[in-house]
């Protein structure tokens, strides 16, 4: 099973975590077979632990900048770092990150990972717009608890592989689409946005040209 996870650090029944599930078809193309929705973090975490044989892409940071961990004296190894942060409340994590940011010079308030700037992604220290620090805080411990293999970070069950994925890298860097491709505002969840023909067709073309397979979408 292949899946991509649109994650939320505070899911609800109105704004759930959404997982797009697919499989490789006999033609070598990728077929979208369904959507899973989770209104709670624990339900999503349980699904990860109980689902066999998957490769998943998750749209939240798996870790924090090395510079941040070094300056704060936090564990360097990923499982220990995740456990260390998971033991904190959201309030505690917010206070620590706010205090650390206050010590940094203007123009360099946020530390970054080596991959953040090339990908155009936000610093995992950010607490708003998007709150990726909170996404790490809630998501990474559940990925770790799933027992999955996380390349370069954790030797887990290699029949289940967890990868950090960033949709904006494909949309903005490879497809050149600058307009917003998603929104958390319900009023903006329009048919035009969902069925944006240019964006969808560009994405299909990029997959075919760059990666050699097509995306087959049924009514899910």
Q: Structural class, judged by helices and strands?
A: alpha/beta
Q: What share of residues is helical?
A: 25-40%
**Rg from Cα:** 18 Å
**Biggest sheet architecture:** 7 strands, mixed
Number of helices: 9
Low-confidence stretches: none
Number of strand elements? 7
Number of domains: 2
Q: Which strand order does the major sheet show?
A: 5-6-4-1-2-3-7
Can you give a write-up of this model?
This protein is of the alpha/beta class. It is built from nine helices and seven strands; from the N terminus they run E-E-E-H-E-H-H-H-H-H-E-E-H-H-H-E. The chain has helices spanning 41-50, 66-72, 78-86, 90-102, 116-119, 132-145, 167-174, 191-194, 197-211, and strands at residues 2-6, 17-24, 30-38, 54-58, 148-149, 157-164, 215-217. The protein has a seven-stranded mixed sheet with strand order 5-6-4-1-2-3-7. A hairpin with a 5-residue loop joins strand 2 (17-24) and strand 3 (30-38). Helix 1 runs parallel beside helix 6 and helix 3 packs across helix 6. The radius of gyration is 18 Å and the shape is globular. It starts with a strand and ends with a strand.
Question: How is this structure best summarized?
Answer:
The protein is 38% helix and 18% strand. By secondary structure, it is of the alpha/beta class.
